[in-house]
Amino acid sequence: MKQLLTSLLTLLTFTGLQAQSIPNAPRLVVGLTIDQLRTDYLEAFSSLYGDKGFKRLWKEGRVFPNAKYTFAGMDRASAIAAIYSGTTPSLNGIVAHRWMDPTTLRTVGCTDDPAFMGYYTDQTCAPTKLLTSTLADELEIATQGKALVFAIAPTPEEAVLAAGHAGNGAFWFNTSTGKWSGTTYYGEFPWWVSVYNDQRAVDTRIAGIAWEPVFPQDMYTFLPDWRDTPFKYRFEDEKQNKYRRFATSPLVNDEVNALAREALNKGSVGADDITDLLALSYYAGNYAHKSVQECAMEIQDAYVRLDRSIADLLEMLDKRVGLQNVLLFVTSTGYTDSQSPDSGTYRIPSGEFYLNRCAALLNMYLMATYGNGKYVEAYYNQELYLNHKLLEQKQLSLTEVLRKSAEFLMQFSGVNEVYPSTQILLGSWSPKMDLIRNAYHRKRSGDLIIDVLPGWNIVNEDNGDHRVARYSDIPTPLIFMGNGIKPAVTRTPVTIDRVAPTLTRSIRIRAPNACAAEAIPEMK
Predict the structure, then answer these.
(1) Which DSSP string corresponds to 162-184?
(2) pLDDT tens digits for 367-382?
């Protein structure tokens, strides 16, 4: 009797397991990263949307309106690297779009590599500064190089970092020529991109392209009193900056879609049962880096056009591959590019913090303390780099010099906090310190990180660069759709480093090699 019962239980167990059908791996993974997309803007302008874009994502997708990055100081490059590597700059090495190279004392771009030539560009780009594997790399390893991996974006860092080390191609919009560019790192330039460049690229159409509102002015809200006429930008009128201006308009997203359509129709992406990856990036920032106050109508219209671009993308994927065969994720880079300080009209406390003056005064202080020498070798992006060789020659303790430097810098107007590298790497844990530590790479970041008070304008007189310090939280969405995903809205915060392991679990491959985060359990 016991044997009979055991056999029946075993049979029922295996029957139940077989009844729970495991969804097939998707034929295509599509990653859509929208630079500077905000959940609050997305929701605030919803009355202007159609039914096939954002509203469809919200209705048919697994929506996380409150996604968080696990490191401080995100920008476009570090965000893309984090999404596809599943880890932070402390491990993947992409601390920013540009950083100071301590060995040469020159700034370098995160994808700069003179060993590789460019197609349709004089830029020399490669993912060689990315120090960990990515989703694209692990997919190629798992399929023995049979998967097709392409990345299409308005900028080279978005494209190259998403395509990873093992991808088949990374294409970005050339703001000097209006063509789609690439790099010899990934081998030959695909014929279908060359044909598009020769026949249909933006440079062949720029004279007839203009950006003006989709709807009448009275349909837009939150407009300043002085805004009494709609905008119209003719990019041909911008002369030398026409393509650069075009790249900061929502029209660039339609160009990303156009090349994605070529990849699907002529590049054979998603055409067989081997999972492919198509990494796309859109732009949702302010036009020409103006403030929200300057371009309130423009930002609303940009979201209207984003909605239509997403609708076009979903329709394209459904017709070509079938959304049931596609695993799509949509997220944001999690920051906003705010370069305009408050005017002073409303008497909000602010000021100007000069990074170059700060470095010069610190060097004078260290000379007065330790003797003559150039102690501060370089400065960039709120980071100061000390002369380690000089400290060794003088037999000075780096820890002591950093401590004294931090105490001196704390006296400057506009300084909120100073973080020495020793404190970042070896100090006690706190939630804020964890974010700073995750953003810090010991071979690429400075010796002293200066945290400037919110509202202060950070100025570098050497290159004219300036930006405004803001601590405001940027609400970031994360949405998954397709491949059997059950629709739901989950308000519980989720971290961006879980995107890569969630995707790799769905397509049954390894997570990137530095990815320690777990897959999102709600996606099982």
Answers:
(1) HHTTT-SEEEEE-TTTSSEEEEG
(2) 999 999 999 999 999 9
